[in-house]
Amino acid sequence: MPTSPPPPGGARRAFHEPGSVKAAWRGLIALSVATFVAITTEVLPVGLLPQISAGVGVTEARAGLLVSVYALLVAALALPLTVLTRRLPRKPLVLATLLSYAASNVLVAVAPSFAVLAAGRALGGVTHAVFFSISIGYASRLVRPEFTGRALTIATVGGSAGFVLGVPLSTSLGTALGWRAAFVVLAVACALTAALVIALLPPVSTVPTAQASDDAPRPGRGRLAVVSVTNAVTFLGQYTVYTYVSVILIGAGLAETAVGPVLLGFGAAGLIGVWYAGATVDRRPRAGLIGALGGVTLGLLVVWAAFPSLGGVLAAGIVWLAMFGSIPAITQAAAIRTRGASPDITGALINSSANLGIGAGAALGSTVLASSGIETLTLVGAALMAVATLMVLVARSTFPARP
Q1: Which of 213, 332, 379, 388 is deepest in the core (most CB within 10 A)?
Q2: Residue 17: which region, alpha, beta or left (left: phi > 0; alpha: psi -120 to 50)?
Q3: DSSP secondary-structure letter at 112?
Q4: Surface-to-core class of residue 6, CB atoms within 10 Å of its CB (0-12 exposed, 13-18 middle, 19+ buried)
Q5: Domains identified in the chain and CATH numbers
Q6: How far is it, in rounded angstroms, from Cα 136 to Cα 39?
Q7: Per-residue DSSP letters for 293-330?
Q8: Is the pLDDT of residue 7 over 80?
Q9: Tens of pLDDT along 247-279?
Q10: Where does the record place it (predicted)?
Q11: pTM tops 0.85, yes or no
């Protein structure tokens, strides 16, 4: 990969040369930790909806819209902000986003009203629009093309951990010390992660090659569009239900103080999904994605059938969240492999489509929960996951059996 021209009045900047996963592991770990705090920032309200709603005097359904506001901002801004910042140095941009995440969490922690709280979340949404778009492209630039899947798996382990561990850990902290304390701790974690990125993440060039340029012919654009739509439907189904997982657990008879530990148990099971992604993404990506989507669908169907039996809900929740943990890495690798756009634009599309699903899912879940109850909520989520599975089954050229 060519290097950028030297900055005015300065020496030529040294950039990382793509190589093996082993050679890039320090940078991939830094991206993974950054992804963990980013995802935890996004989904933290999920485990604290009852406390947040009581703290600022709104209903749980309205508090759930904090997830929607955040996600829909990402969906709307990911592509334009990625285009706007595509010539900026990647590493300083990653650092800027981490500090912005910290500021967002501080604003939420001190918010005296729901309006100020929503403003803090909006800042986080704008930040997220940039971070995830560049982090996906960053990870792919650290390694040669044949290692893309494994590199993305490592970089997104933090995201999977954020989905399945960040929420329960912060929920337990919020339950013990108050929901505002959870956001303060997360702000500190974002600042510490910025220091880790300074130490471990190598700079990469932003100058596109002829193949990487977005002006080059792109026969894979149609396939990239299919991956993006499938990704949106997947996250729509997941967040229609997952936004209200604490409400589901309490409705099944779980004590509010036990929600955090239970979600932590779900998170431990969810690490199986990370292993599953690593085992399939560079070998059998199609079978891996179908298996993951099918597992999530089955888990949600069992939650629907078992509710309000707490034992059945807990058992099904393990299957549901374990399998979902594998989906982001497999889908991101599928998108990169279409070669339908440069890594940054591909990252923006995946980021945008995922957050469109998250925001719409939180809003849909709010409507269903208020009008029809928890049982219908889980059934709607399962139906949407079944649609995503069908899309993968039909689109054989977009989701091939081998990379």
Answers
A1: 332
A2: beta
A3: S
A4: exposed
A5: 25-204+218-394 (1.20.1250.20)
A6: 14
A7: HHHHHHHHHHHHHHTT-HHHHHHHHHHHHHHHTTHHHH
A8: no
A9: 999 999 999 888 878 877 887 777 788 889 888
A10: Cell membrane
A11: no
